[in-house]
C-alpha cells in the first residue's frame, strides 16, 4: 500500500478565489508543482480532496467545476510533469452551525477514506495538507498526519487534539522537505518507525 499526500485545493494548492470555476483565474501557490513532482518521484500518491459547497449553493455547476478541474490537472502535467492520482470533492454545504452535514465534508474524513480504499493507500503513512484546521482534523480522523499550510485560510483557530497540526508551513518547498524526510526515516503518526 502506498503512502499519499492528500492536498486541499483552495488556499493550499492554488490561490483562494472564492467559488472560482474560471480557469483563467487559476494560480498555483509558488513552488507547488515542483514540490508535488518531488513527492511523486518518491513514490507518494497525490490526491486532491476539496470541499465545494458552491455546488449545493448553486454558485456553479458540476460541468463548470469539471472544466476547472481539467485545466488544473492539465497545467500540473504540462508545467511540472505531475499526475494527480485522483480528485475527490464534497458538494455539500455545512449545517447551520458550520459543521459537516455529511460524511465527506472536511473535517470529516470521508474523502480520504474513499480514496484510500479506491487506490490502496496506507493512511498511517500519509499526510493531509491544507490551509485550515478542518483539513488537519480530516487527516487526523482518517489516521494520517495533518499539516497546516498557513496561507491565511484559517481564521477561527478552534483548537482540539485532532486539530493540532504535526507541523505548520508557509511554503511548498518546506512541505516537500518535511514529508520526504519522514518518508526516508519511516516515521509514523505516533513517531514510531515502520
UniProtKB/TrEMBL annotation:
Gene Ontology CC terms: cytoplasm
Pfam families: Hydrolase_like (PF13242)
UniProt: Mg(2+) binding residues: 8, 10, 131
Cofactor(s) in the UniProt record: Mg(2+); Zn(2+)
Positions bearing the site annotation: Contributes to substrate recognition: 105
Binding, Zn(2+): 90, 92, 102, 104
Keywords: Carbohydrate metabolism, Cytoplasm, Hydrolase, Magnesium, Metal-binding, Zinc
Active site annotation, chain numbering: 8 (nucleophile), 10 (proton donor)
E.C. number: 3.1.3.-
Family: Belongs to the gmhB family.
Record PANTHER family: D-GLYCERO-BETA-D-MANNO-HEPTOSE-1,7-BISPHOSPHATE 7-PHOSPHATASE
UniProt-recorded name of the protein: D,D-heptose 1,7-bisphosphate phosphatase
Source organism per UniProt: Roseateles chitinivorans
